[in-house]
Amino acid sequence: MGKKRNHRxxxxxxxxxxxxCAGAGRCGQRPLQAxxxxxxxxxxxxxxxxxxxxxxxxxxxxxVSAESAVLYDAAGDTFLYEKNADARMLMASITKMMTxxxxxxxxxxxxxxxxxxxxxxxxxxxxxxEEGEQLTVEELIYGMLLLSGNDxxxxxxxxxAGSIEDFAALMNGKAEALGLQNSHFANPHGLNDDANYASxxxxxxxxxxxxxxxxxxxxxxxxxxxxxxxxMRNHNKLLWDYEGTVGGKTGYTIKxxxxxxxxxxxxxxxxxxxxxxxxxxxxxxxxxxxxxxxxFTQRTLxxxxxxxxxxxxxxxxxxxAPVRAEEKLTATLSDGEWARVETKFSLPWFAWAPVxxxxxxxxxxxxxxxRTVGETRLYYETGVEVYLPAEKTLGEKxxxxxxxxxx
Length: 407
Hints:
By secondary structure, the chain is of the alpha+beta class. The chain has three domains: 2-55, no CATH class; 61-295, DD-peptidase/beta-lactamase superfamily (Beta-lactamase, 3-Layer(aba) Sandwich); 300-380, D-Ala-D-Ala carboxypeptidase, C-terminal domain (Peptidoglycan synthesis regulatory factor (PBP3), Domain 2), CATH 2.60.410.10. It has helices at residues 10-22, 36-54, 95-106, 137-145, 150-161, 164-177, 200-211, 214-221, 238-241, 281-295, 335-339, 394-401; strands at 2-4, 68-73, 78-83, 112-114, 134-136, 224-227, 230-233, 245-253, 257-266, 269-276, 297-302, 307-314, 320-325, 329-333, 342-346, 351-352, 360-368, 371-380. A seven-stranded mixed beta sheet has the order 1-15-17-18-13-12-16, with no helix packed on it. Strands 3-2-10-9-8 form a five-stranded antiparallel beta sheet, with helices on both faces. Helix 1 (10-22) runs antiparallel to helix 2. The radius of gyration is 31 Å and the shape is elongated.
């Protein structure tokens, strides 16, 4: 059973207004006799409305330099923008988000790490660790995420799993637990390795999971800090340049190109932007956030306990049994998508009495352009007892037998 919301679209209203401007009447009627002044005003209004509609360009029209990119609303589990979202790409130091996730699961922040010789002088960006230097896990995480220290990532990996290879196995286990489809990890730092790759979509999922971890959220939002005897400044320029930025991770190698994951919040909404191999990554992220915050809104599809439909009841004291939603459903949608939401029910055509309150009735699904944006179970809100006719008296039975009413 399907039910579609009946919303009148803006284009339909504009078309009607345009017909009025032209003075075209319905079939068999005289054209609208409007003065030139009113026609001019109506035409001006139609143009203004058309410009308002055009002011919200489709996400596909965005000018993004990245070879692969997404904009993700984690709360609504919705991708607001996609470009080659599932392509397997080198990710450089973005790898360190997964490293941080695994370390924070396996270690205590106060654990002391003695830096082994194998983790000193790792190529690329560095925390400038020295052999035998002792630092806490927390200090190394700051060095890994703010300074993008490859040596810090290696030291954390060896401390956690005993070797780089065993730590990579933990990373891949975490990727599997998160349900990632296009990711594989070969090292903790992201130096070039064809076996170390991820898709923009998977990196958005990793970032969302990381932001649920209080320590990661605190560290990635830190602009500057003095710790472990070092002055550290976050490489993520968006923390200074874009209002609402609450974290992220940069990455670069010649082969991987410029890679960036960032998170921004406004009015309680957090969006996650991912760009891979992006020559103009800072501006890419600003463009994605501007579009996401301006043209997408979190909408309520249904409230928890809201009565959404009624099922006919046979042989009951009541002919209908209301059904309610198990949970509140929200989705991040543009105005155009909101107008195209369809509500689809999976319910029985009827139910036999008795019906019991709280019994499962079916499901409801909200769909936009064939894509499910919300789904929940439905339960009977009230019970319906069986209808039992009153027992006839002896006189009524005798009268019925002789075909006449009792006196």
